[in-house]
Amino acid sequence: MSCGQIMLVVLCILYSVNARFNNQLVYVQALWRHGDRAPKILPYPKDENTELAWPRGWAQLTNVYLLSSAIDRAIVSAQAMLRGFFPATGRDVWMEGEAWQPLPFHSLTPGQPDPESLNAAPHFLGLHKVYILVPFAITMHCSKKLLRPGHYNCPTYNELWDQQKSSLADAINKEYADVFNFLVNATGFPSVGYRQIYPLYGIVAEVIHGLPQPDWVYRRWPSHGNLTTLEIIVDLERLIQMSEFNTSEKAILRGGYIAGNWLDRALNVSMGIQTNPSKMMLFSAHDDTLTPFMFAMKINNGLLVPYAACIIMEIFATAANEFAVKVN
């Protein structure tokens, strides 16, 4: 059964009505993009905002790396160690009087069931404000298909995207040749075109963090709607990302795995057979997780996914013994 067919079945079983008349919330699923980070690499060769401008390093939320076994007691001990050894100080203090800061750790779980089984082994990750251990599910095997679909090798998708990518790159390089020629001297790249859009998009993170920018970043281009150089870069990055999933086939090949995961779980809830987890399933992932997921679910808004963006599905049991689903 295709992802689209599954979605239609879910919408039929989970009869969508307004959450009223004493409807009871029985299940929640949520998928969010991680928080703010540094660029993954130096955006361009002449960029004076080097890695020294980012205390936690390229692409990272922290410089700390901690590896734990899959056993709960080791996981909990890892949390305790991070809490004691790395209290928040200076710019890392996110709330007055709060010394805890969120730090990642990693767990190896040989033999972990494929997330397709819908029953990931329970672990514990993170201490929240009052230092209560919060249950969390860590999946390792086949996690790329679920949470990093863009990093999973799918020959069928690759063939479809390669066919379109070539013509898209040619069109972009032709239309923005004047901008790209200018950017060669400004950035220090030997050449600028389609392939340089992604690293240049890292300038956005610098702007968010108030790092100084050269004048050319804000230069306006009358030949391109009077947009600034940065606005052109952002718009091209948006165009490229949307083009990766803008057909039903591409959307399903990249986002269908996690969409099916959600829809299967919703069906299980409606049939009263969802047991583990019994109340809530949460996913912390990336923009290249949310974008194909939204395309596969046909709820994409055509915009780049911002940091900390979240999709929430709430399932209600109604007074009429039916189920209602609400997606925010």
From TrEMBL:
Catalytic activity: a phosphate monoester + H2O = an alcohol + phosphate
Molecular-function GO terms, alphabetical: acid phosphatase activity
Domain of life: Eukaryota
Entry keyword set: Signal
InterPro entries, A to Z: Acid_Pase_AS (IPR033379), His_Pase_clade-2 (IPR000560), His_PPase_superfam (IPR029033), Histidine_acid_phosphatase (IPR050645)
Pfam families to which the protein is assigned, alphabetical: His_Phos_2 (PF00328)
Signal peptide positions on this chain: 1-19
Protein family according to the UniProt entry: Belongs to the histidine acid phosphatase family.
Name of this chain's protein: Testicular acid phosphatase-like protein
Species this chain originates from: Toxocara canis
